[in-house]
Structure formats: structure tokens, C-alpha cells
Amino acid sequence: MVKQLKQKISLLIAVTAIVVFALQSVAWAATGTVLNKIRSSQTADTVRIVFDVTALPEYTVTTQENPLQLVIDLPGVVNKAAAQYVFNDSTVDKLRLMTGEAGKLSAVIDLKNTYQYKVFTLKNPNRVVVDIIKTDQKLVTNVAPGLTYTSWRKTTANGPIWAHILDLDSQAGFALKPVLSNGAIQGLETLTPMVEHAAALAGVNGSYFGLDGTIIGLLKMDGEIISTPELPRTALGIMPDGKLFIDQVQYEGKVELPDGRTVPINAVNRERGENELILYNGAYAPSTGSNNYGTEYVAVNGNITAIRASNSPIPSDGVVLSAHGAAANLLSCLKVGDIVKIQQTLGTEWDKTEHVLGAGPMLVKDGSVFLSTKVEQFGSDVAGGRAPRTAIGLKADGHILIVVVDGRQDNSIGMSLLELALFMQELGARDAMNLDGGGSSEMVVKGKIVNHPSDGHERRVGDALVIVSSRVAN
Predict the structure, then answer these.
(1) PANTHER family, alphabetically (predicted)?
(2) Domain-by-domain residue ranges, the chain?
(3) Rounded to the nearest 5°, which phi and psi values hold at 138?
(4) Is the pLDDT of residue 90 over 50?
């Protein structure tokens, strides 16, 4: 009797197994979709999870915030892969395959940090692909004692941002200084060799510039005014002791003639226009490159040593006063041997500076957002929309912030000037200003380009702001 009962139970188990297998086979046949294998790959930016399936299934994606999870529901898919996968990653923790009611298969991805995702399918072979895109990553590198570089990828309501931040302790034995492309106004150069030639630890792009390398804005180097703004704009002042300040500044220059009359200097080291007096010094080029429609006066220590019609050689220890039209008429009384007095000023405090780098607009003043875009008459090429940006900020504790924000890319949409001002304020800047941006925005640290220029390569620029040791600066 017992033996017969055992035989019946064994037969029932066998029949049940056959029925289950048959039902499962029917399900497979009905859906035609089996999950055979899961593969994954990891980069610094993304974790990719690939579900190899026999046919492309329909799926739904949901997200959970507490706990942080991404769930892909795969109804009608039968799992033949492992039930759990663990990742050695800062963002993705593990993947669990769970079968719920009515045989619904769910892939539950547990996350450690905030993220973005993409889910899509591919054919031949059939795959469901999940890309976990890492966001809000902060990687801090000690470049040197007192100097750190931070790569910060963050998510905003408008899209992803990738910022590059140099934080410099002003007491750590370093100095900031501007450098010219190729060591002269004329011509352009990429940032990497400019940083290298300056023996600098790091550098970013600086002022606005023209296609010929002419600096658009104020530039003063080693106590000498190299370029001048057309109207008051924001600049960074660097004192001989390394003290920094940011404010608006205006250039004024004039030439006092032997009879006491004065003639205003319209600009320094740029192409001469109608009725203008332009001062050229050794930082410009070997010669003025001017046309034959003016008169040029070569002066060494205020002494007129030569008078020429055009394209005058610029003495290393002097200047050329290049005049046209009304300005030329005012200087027409000068002759070789005359003494003139050249006076240039940026204002009492600014005249004490060793270096000045102008750009603008101002972003932050005394800890508050302060955009001087309209006052400084910036157009849409600077102020319009989101773009790659470069900025410098000064903190109350003496630290200096130099920031480049990538833009015009899938992984970084760039910032508007207002967003940049808010970001500099978030970083702790008491005062901050905008530098040239767009395709010029670039940061080099220890000879390596750390950001992603929007041109896809280095753009040649007119000047740069570099970090050197105090010994090199002196």
C-alpha cells in the first residue's frame, strides 16, 4: 500500500514537472523572448548594461528615489541569466533580476549616486541597452601644495554641466600673471605652449582678442600698458606683492607737446583709425604696420628721434606715436630732437599694479551677483545664451578661483552669464569677473588640457592667465 502510494506521488511529481515545463515552453513560444545573458562595461562617465535577448521586447522604465533605483520591467521575458550582478563603481551598486506576478521580469538597478539614463534597443543581435550616465561627480586633485584642481560634473534643471576649477591659496608661494601669445600682441598661439613657455603650473585663456591677435580690452604687463579698452570695463588687478582686486577701470593717455598743449592718446597697440593717435610700444610687433596716410614720431625717453610716414620700427626702449588726420595736425609742429611728455594713467590704485588683465563683465561684487553687461556694452556674442565660459573669482579667505565651464556639448550645456555668476557665488567668490569664452575657453594643468574645448581642439588665442611660482614671477 505504501509502495503504491509512493509510486503515485512520484508519478504526480513527474506529471507536474512535465506540465510546468510544457507551460513554460508555451510561454517562451508565445513571447519568443528569452533573456540569455547580461553583459556590462564601465568608463569614467558611463556604466553600460546589455541584456542579450532572443527577440526585442516591449519594456517600461520607472525610477525610484528612496531607495535610489532604476527599474526596467520586461513583461513576457523569461530569464535564463544570473539573478544578481554586483558592480565595482561609484554610481552603480548592483543589478537584480526579479520575477513578479504573472511571470513579469523586472531588472532592478540599485544606485549609489545621482545619475541620468538612456534605455534603447539594438538589432542583430537583439539587445536591450541601459546606459547609466554618472552625474555630480567631484574629483579633486592636488596639483601642488596650495593648488587644487577639481573636475565637477553636475546635473542642473536645464542639463548637465562639466566645470573645471583651480583653487589657489594666495599664500602658497604662487603668482598670477598674464602672458602674450608668441610674446607679442601681433599673432595668435594655443594655450599649451603659452603655459609651457611661462614655466607655469597651469593656465587659462584670458582677454578678448582680434583675428590678428590684437587684445580687445585692458592689458598691463610688468608695469607697462600693453593694450587699452575703448570704455570702462572690468579688469583683474595684480599688485607687486600678489594682492588681487577686481573692478572697472578706464585708461587715459596724452602727449604733452613742447609748447604745453596736450593731445589725447586714443589707444595703445592696435590698428590706427581716422583722426587717431595710437601709441605703439615694443610689445606690439617689430614695426607698426601702418599705412602711408599718417605721420609717425619715434620717441626714446621722450626725445623725438625720427619722423616717418608709416610702418615705423618700434624701438625696444621707446615708443612710436602714430597719428592720422586731426591728431596728425596737432603733432605736426614736432621735429627731431623735441622733447614730449607721455602721460598714461589707469587711476591712482591701478597705476600701482604690476599686471592688469581686462575682459568682463563683472559677475559678483561684495558677495552679491552683479552683472555689468549693459553698462559695459557687451553684445550678444558675449552675453547671449549658454556657452563655454571662463571666469576668475576672489574669495574672502584669500583663495583664488579660476573656472572653466565646458559648453556646446552633450555632457555640458555651458552657462549663461547669470548662471556663471550664481556658480561663482556658490563656490564662495566675493568678487568675480568673466573672461573670454566660447571656443577659447580652455584650462591646462601640468601641460595637460583638462577641459573639453568646444571646437574639438585648442583655439589660438591672444593672451592667457597663468599660475607660476613666485620665484618665476619675479
Answers:
(1) N-ACETYLGLUCOSAMINE-1-PHOSPHODIESTER ALPHA-N-ACETYLGLUCOSAMINIDASE
(2) 34-134, 139-250+349-473, 252-345
(3) -120, 115
(4) yes
Mean pLDDT of the 159-173 span = 94
Q: Which three cell numbers stand for residue 361?
A: 563683465
Distance CA 453, CA 300 (A): 43
Residues 164 and 451 sit within 8 Å (Cβ to Cβ): yes
What's CA 399's distance to the chain center, in Å? 19
The full DSSP string for 266-282 is -EESS---TT-EEEEET
- Examine the pLDDT at 296 and tell me if it is beyond 60: yes
User: The domain at 34-134 falls in which architecture?
Assistant: Sandwich (2.60)
DSSP annotation string for 100-145: -GGG-EEEEEEESS-EEEEEEEETTTTEEEEEEEE-SEEEEEEEET
Count of all residues that appear for the chain in the document: 474
Give the Å distances, CA to CA, from 287 to 113, 195, 254, 267, 311. Answer: 59, 26, 21, 16, 6
Residue 33 cell numbers, joined: 523572448
pLDDT value at residue 12: 45
The set of cell numbers assigned to 446 is 601640468
Contacts of 140 (CB under 8 A, 6+ apart): 148, 149, 150
Question: Which helix (H) or strand (E) element contains residue 3?
Answer: helix 2-31
Unique residue bearing C-alpha cell 615708443: 319
- Digit-coded pLDDT (tens) for 380-432: 999 999 999 999 999 999 999 999 999 999 889 999 999 999 999 999 999 99
Distance CA 62, CA 343 (A): 70
Q: To which H or E segment does residue 423 belong?
A: helix 417-426
- CA dist 258 → 48, 255, 281, 325, 339 (Å): 78, 10, 21, 20, 6
